[in-house]
Amino acid sequence: MTQLETSSFDRSLLLLVPATLFMIVLFVYPFLYGLQLSFRPAEGGWLANYAKFFATDNLWGTIGTTLKLAVPATVINLGVALPIAYQMRNKSRYQKWITTLLVIPLTLGTVLIAQGMLGYFGPKGWLSQALQFLHIYDDPIRLTHNYWGVLISLIISGFPFAFLLTLSYITGIDPTLPRAAATLGASPWNQFRHIYLPLLVPGLAMAFALSFVQAFSVFPSAVLLGSPAGATRVISIAAYEAAFEQYDYSMASAVAMVMGLVQLVVVVAILSARGMFYRGPVSGGKG
Amino acid sequence: MDSHRLLAKLWKSLIALVMAFFVINVALMVAAVATSSVARRWLGTWLPEGYTLGWYLAAWKEFQLGSVLWVTVEVVAAVVFLSILIGVPAAYALARRNFPGKRLLMGLFLIPLMVPPITYGIPLATVMYQAHIAGTIFGVILSNMIPAVPFMILVMTPFIEQIDTNLESAARVFGASTFKLFWHVLLPLLAPGILAASLLVLVRTIGMFELTFLTAGPDSQTLVVALYYAVFAAGVRAPQSVDAMAIIYMTITLVWLLIALQFVNPTQLVSRVKEHPQTA
What we know:
By secondary structure, chain A is mainly alpha-helical. Chain A has helices spanning 17-38, 48-55, 57-87, 93-120, 126-133, 147-171, 176-183, 188-216, 220-224, 235-244, 249-273. Chain B has 11 helices and no strands.
């Protein structure tokens, strides 16, 4: 495409203007506005919001609460998704069916999953009844309105996401590499260990970061399925309350900034950890 | 050798088992909502005592579903249309041209997809309340476009990259004007990609909760937000009518999803973010 480059101004670059303007006005500007607003608290010095956040237990504690949900959920989702996606790396009818089945919970959205879980996993739901019927567990189970309810909903919506993402990375690896290893006598496990895994690390890091970001921003299910005043008072609830219950937009922006910062720290940590592994093309031939 | 094969078999069965466990539980969960939505009375038994379709009528009236659905249609249609209008030209320029700052611009389009909506949704809602567009359908459309436009660009850029540039050059040689080139050559070539990307944006916008929740007013709620409020205030209403509403929501999403899956690969639904922007 180099022959299209000219030294004079290229008018087709004007095509970028609407999208760029849109993003600057509706994404960059509000973000910067929120940032400066967070330093202009209703009362006190310019850092008063942040001081209050880190001095108040039910604000500061939300970081820990959110991490306690998001980290296990991400590890479980990705840990289960990886072997299953590896098993289904070859194109088949089976693969197509499973991926289609798994897309459904992804599009149901967290609100519908919450509503379904209240019925199905609730103390009088089918699961509880079945367990009692089989005498596995005789008391009504408590899987809603607590930590477990939120964790399960994060798995229901997050596992398909992690699976499809991992699958797209695995199928992106040139299949001639493991085939070559197989002709040299490598077992499936060794193919995975020495060929797929090193090539997958960058993709897995990306999948982990994206899954984590989703779990970290948990909001509707933490309200509907958890105990929003206690064990599942996550950071997005704190931000929402500041904005729409106390109408303190300055504080709400500060909480949103802290939230963004924590995510950034985790994502950067994950992505820089991947630098210790192989880096290079994963698909043979021309990219 | 034999023990190896046994182990491999065990491993395969374990994976199938985990998969089945997940799918069955999710299916039963949906079935529980569906059963409840047609149940006359259902308290602690396997199946309800009787069946009725009355809850659908009740939900329709109670939650003003008619106007909520209309708002949803308006929002989704506007978001899809405007994302095409803004996103496709940008994707074309990104696919065909190299220029200084291209990676920076790609980064700008990537970030909104990697940051959860709540983080930028709260400052955005603050700005929108000051500009008096929060609580209007216009505000809801604008906020839903923030993830939709970049998504459109990221799906369309690789699609345009694989279209042969010679076709455009040939049209130019034969004297096509820019408009003719666009209308007779580019648009037919782009149509399948635009269709696929629009369906993906459509399915994602129907399910987008956070941004709509933060910027919508009482008259500009989409279905998913109305459903949230219904579940949130479930104590005062019959659970069956909330379930009926959930089923209506699910049916709409599923129909569109099945249409979308005719044209796109399921893995494309999770934004297939490229690690390094392509600088072909």
